[in-house]
Write a structure and sequence with these properties.
The chain has two helices and twelve strands; from the N terminus they run E-E-E-E-E-E-H-E-E-E-E-E-H-E. The chain is mainly β and about 150 residues long.
Length: about 150
Amino acid sequence: MNSPDQSTEVLIVTLGGQYYGIDIHQIQELCCSERVMPVVTPQAYVTGAIDLHHIMVPIIDPYVRHGTESPAVDAIYVILKDGANLAGLAVDGILDVQMVHSELLQSASRCSPAFRPEFLTGTGQINGQSVLMLDGTKMVSEVDLSLTQTVAA
C-alpha cells in the first residue's frame, strides 16, 4: 500500500455484509445498473462486459467466483484500472471515501469469503468497522482481457 507513515483515501464498498476498501488511485469511475452483455471467456467469474464510453469493460462478480448466488439487487460497478486496462467489480453498495493511515493497517491474515488472499493488502478499523483492503490492480491484471469477446445479444 504505502510506507508506514503515509495515508491514502479509500473507497469503502460492501459485498456480502463485509466492508472492503479500495485505494481511490486504483479506481477509474463508478457506474450503476449498466446493461451487462454476455461474453465468451474461460473465466466464469467474468460474468459479462459493459460498454463504458465505447470501451468494453469485463465485469468481475465475486459471488460467481466463489460459487454463491448473487443477491437480486441492482449492481454497482467499481471500474478498476491497471494502467490502460480496466475491469468492473460488482459490489452490493458504496458507502464513503475515507482516509486510511497505513500504520493502522495489519496484514490481511484474515480470509475473505469473496477474495483470494493475494487480492488483500491489509485489514483495519475505519469508523469502528472492520475493513479488508483490496488490491484493485491485481484484480484487473488477473482478468484475461484478450479472451473477452462480446456475444451478440
